[in-house]
Write a structure and sequence with these properties.
alpha+beta, 8-stranded mixed beta sheet, 6-stranded mixed beta sheet, about 30% helix, about 25% strand, binds ligand MTE, binds dioxothiomolybdenum(VI) ion
Amino acid sequence: MNLQADRPAHSAVGMAIPHESAAGHVTGTALYTDDLAGRSSGALHAWPVQAPHAHARVLAIDTDQAVQVPGVVRVLTAADIPGTNDAGTKNDEPLLPTEVMYHGHAVCWVLGETLEAARLGARAVHVDYEALDSLLTLTEAIETGSFQGEAPTVARGEAGRALAQAPRRFSGGFEFGGQEHFYLETHAALAHLDEAGQVFVQSSTQHPTETQEIVAHVLGLAGHEVTVQSLRMGGGFGGKEMQPHGLAAIAALGAVLTGRPVRLRLNRTQDITMTGKRHPFHATWDVGFDDDGQLVALQATITADGGWALDLSQPVLSRALCHIENAYYIPHIEVHGRIAKTHKTSQTAFRGFGGPQGMLVIEDILGRCAPALGIEPGELRRRNLYQPGQLTPYGQEVRHAERLATIWEQLTDNADVEARRVQIEAFNAARTHTKRALAITPVKFGISFNFTAFNQAGALVHVYKDGSVLINHGGTEMGQGLHTKMLQIAATELGVPLSRVRLAPTRTDKVPNTSATAASSGSDLNGGAVQNACAQIRERLATVAAHALHAHPHDVRFAGGRVGVIGQTGSGRTDVTADPERELDFHDVVLEAYFQRVPLFAAGYYRTEGIHFDSARMQGSPFKYFAYGAAVSEVEVDGFTGAYRFLRTDIVHDVGDSLSPLVDIGQIEGGFVQGAGWLTLEELLWDTSDGEQRGRVTTGGASTYKLPSFSEMPAELNVHLLPRAKETGVVYGSKAVGEPPLMLAFSIREALRTAVAAFGPAGHSVQLASPATPEAVFWAIQDARGAGRDSAGELLTTAAAQESVTGAGSDAGSRAT
Ligand code: MTE
Ligand code: MOS
């Protein structure tokens, strides 16, 4: 199947093929970092000594008893670090700290012959701590003024004046939770030295180059003395963009000090208690509408909980600010951002990278204001969608904004929205304790790294004499199907069957100075580089073939493993000629090129053109394009318990001309479900008591942290790719797909809100905690029912109705806990 007519016939690009490792994934033959350790004999195991305080000074570490434990080889402490004791890029993340900054912070590591020896050794390490005061919640941090990093503002127009004049004005606040990545493969690294003392680290990392840089930094080595390989990850979701570095450095340090391979793999609880998560946010806002429900102004302050160190908090906040308006035009806007510093793990990238948090603010505002405005929430959203030619608050034109309306229409048609609304009304009218609702929400997500320099990539493509092809590129595979797409691009560019192309593991000694595989830009960037490398080789081969075929190199075409000359076919289409006299086998051309001493490998390079951003002023055009989508979800809520079911979700999503439709549909389904998990079930809790456990993550495993599973999938899930969606200037007209679909899950949250509202009187504005756990939904239903009783007694005036969305900052949040 090839969905795109304007691509070469039988082109591998656009073909619906399975993930290149699908069989390996399901049969267990696909290897991950720690599996490789199992194959390297004599590797030592590393186990952390985790501090039992949220904040403390380390007075002394006594390792005497630990090294007596049978099988313990060595304890790694700060004194052993030959280079710089820092695991981050901001100089604020001591690898082995003298000040404990969160409960579970590793103060030293024990190396053992077995995992058990290392574990027992860690238990025998005696650490003297002086406990210090700690800040755990966003509210505490805001009250005490505990912030870190910069506090940028995105602004346009005169928000204050426009608000003062707005016919309808509301204000409110809201605090919402983060998310644990819960990748199936926890963090892992395996380090060993070669005969010259150079360090080779296998790491489950989305960012091999930065892992290499940090390992070199910690060991005091030059970049060329450290090689990092990322074979594949069992999920990263942003959690392996920065967090692997320190762990790789510990393994490498152990290898340097002992001369033996060192393997490090966190168990689930260690992973949850030691590594960063999605940032929780706090938001306060003031919004104005005209009488038709058109947004006129927004003033807001959003505060990200960064945890103990900066990590990626600044770019995450920047993306939150650049997505605060989601798909809606807001003429006057002023949004301030800041990062709280708390004694928790250092929060980090997570699918959407702050975008979801920014967008949740406007979706919450619209969901809460719609009843007060007397406009159906979906209609309120539709009226405010960007129109072609409008600019974002940071000054970028919303190119192809008309797709938002197109998607909206297709979705409401596909999903039969109008008819179902009528059915839902009848269903609800007949029941007191069960209510259904559906909600439709849009997504607009900017693609490219906000930081312009990261938008570059490299590749290295080899063609061997037999015509087989090996590609290296700088992107990493975490299940998202990047490698599958790269194979499809190389096969298409060189006109060879997919089976002739193989992909080699991602390594820093093959392609240097790479960017993280993140910001959904993996296939745009690396695809551009692979395409560029293949095009160079193809042009060289075209010259060789042209000579043999007595043609001009411009007329030579590569397809299906054959090299031919362009001609007129019967249909009048220019195509590879049918004349077999003027066709050669790809491998014959390759061999001939070899004999003519034409190089058969090439380094490819790509950089995204036309983007710029001034992060101090928060103005520019940081994104190559926007990915669009919309979803409509129907839910059913039980009024006795707050329990709910997801009945049906329909999605229309814009992936441009899909490079790989099965992969893209998988990404859309997976992103949507992960977003639904964040917004409904996944609740991270910390012990905030003043007791001994203060600061401990209390949701340290699958038994206490509820992930969506089959039973939480919508009973019916229909995904459609927006047809005829070619995006110019991107590889094969495609668009990024990794993160944007996560935010389609707002439709679930808004459907829950609408279903809750159905338990109360018309016009009741529902405040819903996030995550909207069944417990939170239960309390929201109680509120809705209470509002019903109030309004029976005293009629609400318009002014009072406006007040009704004015909630104190964390009301909804605190209610749920
Ligand atoms: N899909 C799977 N299966 N596993 C993952 O870890 N990570 C997501 C997304 N999809 C992820 C995934 C995140 S956070 C990003 S940024 C993109 O994939 C990165 O890959 P891409 O740029 O190749 O889309
Ligand atoms: Mo994705 S959060 O950009 O790794």
